[in-house]
Structures are given as C-alpha cells and as structure tokens.
Design goal:
There is one protein chain. The radius of gyration is 30 Å and the shape is rod-shaped. It is mostly helical. It is built from 6 helices and no strands. It has a domain of about 80 residues. The longest helix has 21 residues. Helix 2 runs antiparallel to helix 4, helix 3 crosses helix 6 and helix 5 runs antiparallel to helix 6.
C-alpha cells in the first residue's frame, strides 16, 4: 500500500514539475496611439453621416433643395476631420426622427461654402473665389 501511494505521489510530482517547465502562452499588448483612436472615431462618424444621407427622406429633401445625392456623398467623403466632427455633433443633437431639415440645411451650407472656395463643383449657381 505504501508503494502504490509512493508511486502515485511521485507521478503527480513528476507531472507537476514538467508542467512548470512548459512555456506559458503570452499575450502581446501594444499601445494604441491617440491618433489611431481619433482616426477610427472619425471613420465611424463619417460612416454614420453617409448612412444618414442614404435615408429616403433625406434624399427627398436634398432633391427638393437641388442637391445631387451622389455628389453630397462624395463631398462627405472629402470632408476634413473637423467638419465631420461638427456634422456628427449636429446629428447627435438632433431629436430622434425630428429635425432632419436642420441637418440637411447644415450639410447644404457646408457644400455651398466648399463650392464657393472652389474645392468642389456641386451647385451650378456658385462661382469659385479662386
């Protein structure tokens, strides 16, 4: 009986000692820069604005204002990060299902200003400053 207990104990000790020498899986952690986080945030906000422009009621309002939906989408793709943040902030402040006209007006103004500065040509009635 003592021999069998000794064998079991020795086998348990052998297995435990061998398991101590095995390499443990390691987790690799890297630092994420603030720039990477902000770029991801701006991309998310840009996608949210694009989704907003995809809505049927928004497209109907844009057509009523004389804005081509595709050119508005192209314009959103070319906006700076600060402009995207400003528009996304207006989307956050708008009541749910409510002030769509105000947001469309804000997009219209941004498109108009960039047209006047000669960055794009969306509206035929504007003349670039350059």
């Amino acid at each position: 009986m003592k021999k069998s207990a000794f064998r079991v104990t020795s086998r348990i000790l052998i297995v435990s000692m061998l398991s101590l020498t095995m390499p443990l899986p390691q987790a690799n952690a890297e630092l994420i820069s603030t720039q990477e986080i902000t770029q991801a945030q701006f991309q998310t906000e840009r996608a949210r604005i694009q989704d907003f422009l995809e809505r049927e009621d928004v497209q109907n309002q844009m057509v009523a204002m004389g804005v081509d939906a595709q050119s508005a989408k192209d314009r959103v793709a070319s906006l700076s990060d600060q402009e995207v943040a400003r528009i996304a902030g207006k989307l956050d402040q708008a009541p749910a299902g409510g002030d769509v006209l105000g947001i469309i007006f804000a997009v219209f103004i941004i498109l108009l200003v960039t047209d006047i500065f000669g960055l794009t040509k969306v509206f035929p009635f504007t003349r670039p400053v350059r």
